[in-house]
Automatic annotation (TrEMBL):
Highest rank taxon of the organism: Bacteria
Organism: Pseudarthrobacter oxydans (Arthrobacter oxydans)
InterPro entries: LacI/GalR-like_sensor (IPR046335), Peripla_BP_I (IPR028082)
Name recorded for this polypeptide: DNA-binding LacI/PurR family transcriptional regulator
Assigned keywords, A-Z: DNA-binding, Transcription, Transcription regulation
Domain Transcriptional regulator LacI/GalR-like sensor: 3-89
Keyword Isomerase: no
């Protein structure tokens, strides 16, 4: 899924079509928005530090625009993520 809002919408659509989550299909979102744990079933989601990612992105952009002599700008950054396992994921169906 793209984000939690789309994943929650998918949960509703699957339920309307009698597709059971997680028995028939697992759904995962990202962002861990308010309410992700209140939907039925509660949504498994991935969260990451948005503010930190923004600061790193601006720093990388500024280093590209104003490079220091002898130092190349950083081209990649790893951000920590956290998987919150709830009840929208399960083992694959047999």
């Amino acid at each position: 899924m793209f984000n939690d809002l789309l994943a929650i919408g998918m949960l509703q659509r699957l339920q309307a079509r009698a597709i059971r989550v997680p028995e028939d299909m697992s759904i995962i979102g990202s962002d861990d928005i308010f309410g992700a744990d209140f939907c039925n079933p509660p949504l498994t989601t991935i969260s990451s530090p948005i503010e930190q990612a923004g600061r790193v992105a601006v720093s990388m952009l500024l280093s590209q625009l104003n490079p220091l002599p002898g130092r190349g700008g950083r081209k990649h950054a790893l951000m920590p993520t956290h998987l919150t396992i709830r009840r929208s994921t399960g083992p694959p169906p047999h």
